Amino acid sequence: MDAYRSEYSKDPDQFAAQGYTGIEIIADAAKRANLSFTNLASDRDKLRAAMESVNIQTPLGPFQFTSDHDVKQTVWVIQMDGSGGFTLVKSIPPS
Q1: Separation between Cα atoms, residue 93 and residue 1, nearest integer Å
Q2: 89, 78 in Cβ contact below 8 A?
Q3: CATH code where residue 72 lies
Q4: 10-67 confidence digits (pLDDT tens)
Q5: What range does the domain containing 87 cover?
């Protein structure tokens, strides 16, 4: 948040938070996947396996995948006002 504010002089919006979260998920899996960078097929399998066990805190809240590879995360339903603002309509916790 501080780095974003420093760079852009405003708080990150939902799209910045979603993009950052996506990179955090991939980075977490990559750190744990023990990639060789010499065998693409093997590294792909290792990364996929590591993604299955991602369980991290993100700007959007806790994140992990279900056993069916769906996202297990709170869903935030917001109403955009057309001027960059929004109102939280509802949050749906993961089941």
Answers
A1: 24
A2: yes
A3: 3.40.50.2300
A4: 988 888 989 999 999 999 999 999 999 999 999 999 999 999 999 999 988 899 999 8
A5: 2-92
